[in-house]
Amino acid sequence: MAIFYDFSGGMESTAMLVLERERILDTGAVARMADTGKQFPEMGLHFRQVEHRLGIQIVTPPRRITFDEFLFERGGMIRKGTIDCSKRMKRSNLSRHMKSFPPPYEVNVGFNLDEEERDNRATAFSERNEKPWLHWRYPLIERGIRRAQTRKICLDAGLSVVVEMYDKMGRFDCFFCGNQKPSQALKVYDHYPELAREWMVAEERKGHSFLPVPLKVLVENRDRQGTLALFEGTSQCACFGGNEDVTEDCAEG
Questions:
Q1: 3-state secondary structure of 156
Q2: Share of the chain above pLDDT 90, in %
Q3: Could you say which of 11, 94, 151, 199 has the lowest number of CB atoms within 10 Å?
Q4: 31 strand-pairing partners
């Protein structure tokens, strides 16, 4: 069986690699990351720190298209609640990489116990995507690990970059993710002005905003509490979630 650990670079998937390190090494499992090319600049440092501290090589499957091609040439969408970017820039690349190995497959994903208790996230995901030749496993849920515990797991393992990014930004994924909170988007503007400029140019070129309001409007109205309250809400990354089958382009062997 080919075993994969899907590493997003976030706190949960990082904690998953820490806790499963011995199994990864013992089974020859493949830790892998779908690089969209739009992550925060610290992602490369985090990537190297994880490999060095854990002694695990992380594979980055080649992209079939660039993010700019996805967004501007292939009709790609970035919107709150949508999964288009995740499906086409992450899942499709990981699926193609998986198919380069003979089945059956096991894919490990970093859902935590809070997500399962709140939304039945892992249960619903497996109901949609479990196949006779493909098993989805959730190591954090099996171990009873909640979101709050993942920070200590990463700290104890010496993985400081991801902890510092969560302390600063509240997240660690693509910088103009449509599912982030407005308060997080404003942190992009404050801490990464060059990325904020790229974001604004991309929204203007695309012809619509990635959040419910354009980043420029959000910045101009940052002191008006009502603007933030319109869509602060709960933010959840659409990666490895949503309501669509993520294995639609996987071969049944």
A1: helix
A2: 81
A3: 151
A4: 5, 58
